[in-house]
Structure formats: structure tokens, C-alpha cells
Amino acid sequence: MAGGISEAQLFLDNETLCEFIYMAPGCEVPVHTHQGSESTLVLDGSFEDELGEYKTSDFIIRDAQHNHQPRSKEGCLCFAVLDSPLKFTEGLSRLMNPVNRYKFNKATSRIA
Fold it and tell me: Which residues, in sequence order, are CB contacts of 75 under 8 Å at separation 6+?
């Protein structure tokens, strides 16, 4: 996704993309919104966005109403469940939107 960010997908059903997301200290995700919903559980560390700071065991839900840029000073590990792909909204990262749609469709089609 971006430098210092790693993802590991977990295949549970054909309607959601489930993944562990690791953000190294000092990393940030490009500004984005959600076409559906994203539920995130912070497993370790912390991150913040325009709406607040989230620490271990916090549970966050974002949808199309939220345009945000998650970033982590200390690093964090999260588990996220998405029912639609991210939509990057600023800069060159918008070029990744077709890749995100493809990745989401490929992941959700693995389980029939």
C-alpha cells in the first residue's frame, strides 16, 4: 500500500476483505474514504487520524462519510474487515483505485 505498511489477508467469506495491517513507526496511509464500511480493531500500538487517536483494543468503524489519513508514530498492528475497497481521494495515490478494486474483487472471489 505504502512504504512501511504490510498487509496479510485472511479469507473468511466472499463478501468481505479481512486483513492484518502493520504500520511501521512514522508511516501513514494516503488520504482515502470508504465505498462501504471498514471495521478496525487495534491489536497493538496506536494510530491516529483526523477524528482521534486509537490505542490497543480500540474498535473503529469508518464509511463513505469519513475522509481520513491514518498515521502511526509508534507503529501498530490492526485487524480490518472491509465490505468494499478503499477509495484514495488525493494526489497520485488515486491511481491505485483500480488496483484496490481488483485486489478486493480477487480476495472476495477466492471463497465460493
Answer: 22, 23, 24, 25, 27, 45
